[in-house]
Design brief:
With 92 residues, the chain is mostly helical. It has one domain: Arc Repressor Mutant, subunit A, CATH 1.10.10. 61% of the residues lie in helices and 11% in strands. The chain is built from six helices and two strands, in the order αββααααα. It has a two-stranded antiparallel sheet. The longest helix has 14 residues. The protein is globular.
Length: 92
Amino acid sequence: MFILRMEQSRVSHHMRVLRDAGIAEDVREGRWIIYRVPEAARPLLEGLLTGALKDRIAESGEAEADARKLEACIRENVRGCLCDAPSRAEGR
């Protein structure tokens, strides 16, 4: 959400589509669901990202911008801040 600047529900929907396609898998860590690329899908994605899509990704600048946002997310401990914040239901 922080990096993609999208609503959580939209990100969850996209991640569910990727999971259903076998391109992502999820692991629950407390309140968080952590997504990763499964071992079986890595050769396919590596082929795509080092082949025809590599130049298009580099030219778009989006990957570089997302990498900077990820660095800021880690530096600012966004995940920790979200975990420590009271939920909306508790705040009412």
